[in-house]
Structures are given as C-alpha cells and as structure tokens.
Amino acid sequence: MDVFKKNSNPNTSEDGAPIRSFIGPESGPGANGAEAGRAPPVIDMRSFLDDPHGAFAALRETHPVVQVGVMQYFVLRAREVLDLFTDGRTRQITGGDYIRFNAIPEGFTAQFIEDVMLFNEGEEHRAKRGLFARTFTYALMRSKRPDVAVVADRIVAALPRGETFDFVDRMAARVPAEMIATILGLPVQDAQYFAPRVYALSKALTPIYPHACHNEIEAATAELYAYVAGQLRSRQRVARSDVLTSLVDAWSADPVIGFSSLVNQVIGVILAGSDTTRAAFAMLVALLLEHPEQWDAVKRDPDLIPGAIAEGMRFEPSVGSISRTAVVPMEIAGMTVPAGAMLRLSTMSAMRDPGLYSEPDRFDIRRDDHPRLHAVFGMGPHRCLGEMLARIEMEESLAALIRGAPDLAMEARPQMTGLGGIRQITPMPVRIH
C-alpha cells in the first residue's frame, strides 16, 4: 500500500507536517478511501498525553471515533468498543499491518510482532494458542494459588523496613515475573534477567511506536530470543518435568509452526505474564493508599480484594487499547472509516464511560456495576490467556501486603503513562514503618 511508503510516521501528514489538533471533519468525503459520509475528526495524539482521561471524556459523546494518523482511528465510546471486539466486519490486526502502520524496522522486534499469536487470526492463531491452552486453564491456574501466595509472602518479608524503596521494582515486578518463570520451568533467578528486557520490548506495543527507543527495544528482543531459544533447545537435549519440556515435546510430535515461531510464542507468554500485571498491581496499591478509607476497608475485610482488583484495572488500566482492523468500509457511531483501517479500541475511555459505569471517575472498590467480562482482558478468541493467573497474582500479592506490611505508606504517586496498548508506569517510592 503506497500510503505506508509516503507516510512512515503515522503522526504526520503525507508531506511530513505534524497532524493538527482540531475538532472538525476531514477535507471532503471519502478523504481516506472510505465511502462518502461523516469523517471522524483528526486529533494529534500528543495532545492527549498530559491528561488522557480528560481528553477522552471531552471527545467521547460528540466524537466517539477520532482519526489519529493515516488509516488509524481511536474508538472511545463503550458501546462501540465492546461491540467491535467481536464484530465480524473486523479482524485482529496482523503483525504485518502493525509493522507497516508504525514503520518498525526489520529485525528481531519486527519478526516477533509479525509472528506472535497476539497479531494472528484464524487457524494460525488457534494453532499457536493451542500450544499453551492446556497450561493456562482456569482450573490449573487456580491450583497455583498456594504457590503464588508463598512467592508473595516471601517477597513482602524481604522488603526494606524504615527506608524508602521503589514498590514497582521491589514488589510489583517480582511476583508476576517469578511466577511466570515458575510456571514455565525457568530458573526463578532468571526473572532478574528477562524482566527488564520484557519491559523494553513492551514499549513496541504502544499506539505511537517510540522510534527513539528502537535500538533498546531491538537489543532486548534479540537477547530474549537467544535466552528462550537456549532454554527450549536444552529441553530438546535433556527433558525436565516442566511446562517448557511438555511444550517442546508437543511441538516435536506435531510441529505446526517453525522453531523460531515457537520461541516467539514463549516470549509473548513471558511478556504477557510479566509486564501488564506489574503495572496493574502497582497502580492498584497506589490507588488504595491514595484512598486510605478503602485501604483500611480491604485490611479489615479481605473479601473486598477481588472487587479492588477489578476496580483498579478499570480505573487505570495497564492495557489502554486493543487493536482491530476494519475488513470492509464501516460506519461506527455515524462516522465512516475505510477498509483496512486500524481501529484502536480504547479500554481506557470505555471504562470511564458513564454509559457503562455509574460515576466512572470515582474509584470505588465496592462497585457493583462491573460487566461479567472485564474489558481490559479483551473479548472473543483473543481474550487474555493468562487472565486467571493475573487475577490470582494480584489477589495473593495484595493479601500478602495486608499480612506483612499493613502500614505501607506511599511517598509519591506513580503515573501510568501512555494512552493505548501496553502502558508504562513510573517509580512508586514507598516506606514500611
């Protein structure tokens, strides 16, 4: 498609000029290849960064779809976001499309994005996801709860007392990284190696690809590839009693994908099992400490923990949007988008929509209007494989904090940065008295 060659930066126009921030129609019907109709306004995404929730709220009702780049659209209103997760006129965005939209250079990062099951559809997605489906069943993940509790208690017991430390690094990052290592059969101490590289790779999965960080992302992806490939090959030589051995055995018996693809799927599972839970849990604890009456309520009544987890993921999600591709020209909320367009379904905006939640800008762990399926995990065939594990990790980690560090105090609130894809979190200085 010529448009990708002409405009490698999705935040500039075809002549290289920055997209203006304005509310108004595009210059003429069908300007982007869509059928004639009401075109979404063009918005400079950089204008969202300081206050994304406020920006989404200002746009949501009058402009539920906005264009943010060439052939790229944000969908903001809950009713459309939830419907489009499984709308047959859309499909999961492919890795190739994602690479072209974001002008990602060739290399390990592009190869990972092209290959990982997150960006696959149909039979290819089913084949790759099927390799892991038995490992991440709800029943099996529930059986891991005692193991998660042991890990969480051990980490809380080792936290410094009487001095300031970064909660994200010393607690929130360790539980999910060490648990995904334990589940797969990786040495627990290796979490210190792979976790920082996973966090670097996750920067690639944001609405605006950070080209300034590409060398860091590429190096991290290459190192993760070498690490995982080494772990899999070692199990081909000598079997062990772990998930990776079972995975290699199943793959060897029926190699539905190539070895390099197998490596990329494992990297994807490690990424999904490490990064998003880290940010979600840290922000949940920050929100509870920011609302001391709710922190005290959780300490008094641990039965409130699941509701607190759901509310934290709603109020400040670590996954800000999920991308789909329009298969045909579509009218969404009265606005027309062309076939082939990238639709970024904004979970951030949808979960602050008063059409879905009562008083959506209020953090309330006793909220009783959560939908049965939490939108942050997606919907349909691509719903998060590790949802149950993530919930258990956060529940047991919060319970461990209540038992072992009830007087935890926050010195500065962290910020969740970014407005789509996998969001990043800043350090969270805390102290246990």
TrEMBL record:
<comment type="similarity">
    <text>Belongs to the cytochrome P450 family.</text>
</comment>
<keyword id="KW-0349">Heme</keyword>
<dbReference type="GO" id="GO:0004497">
    <property type="term" value="F:monooxygenase activity"/>
</dbReference>
<dbReference type="InterPro" id="IPR002397">
    <property type="entry name" value="Cyt_P450_B"/>
</dbReference>
<keyword id="KW-0408">Iron</keyword>
<feature type="region of interest" description="Disordered">
    <location>
        <begin position="1"/>
        <end position="37"/>
    </location>
</feature>
<dbReference type="GO" id="GO:0020037">
    <property type="term" value="F:heme binding"/>
</dbReference>
<dbReference type="InterPro" id="IPR036396">
    <property type="entry name" value="Cyt_P450_sf"/>
</dbReference>
<keyword id="KW-0560">Oxidoreductase</keyword>
<keyword id="KW-0479">Metal-binding</keyword>
<dbReference type="GO" id="GO:0016705">
    <property type="term" value="F:oxidoreductase activity, acting on paired donors, with incorporation or reduction of molecular oxygen"/>
</dbReference>
<dbReference type="InterPro" id="IPR001128">
    <property type="entry name" value="Cyt_P450"/>
</dbReference>
<dbReference type="GO" id="GO:0005506">
    <property type="term" value="F:iron ion binding"/>
</dbReference>
<protein>
    <submittedName>
        <fullName>Cytochrome P450</fullName>
    </submittedName>
</protein>
<dbReference type="Pfam" id="PF00067">
    <property type="entry name" value="p450"/>
</dbReference>
<keyword id="KW-0503">Monooxygenase</keyword>
<feature type="compositionally biased region" description="Polar residues">
    <location>
        <begin position="1"/>
        <end position="14"/>
    </location>
</feature>
<dbReference type="InterPro" id="IPR017972">
    <property type="entry name" value="Cyt_P450_CS"/>
</dbReference>
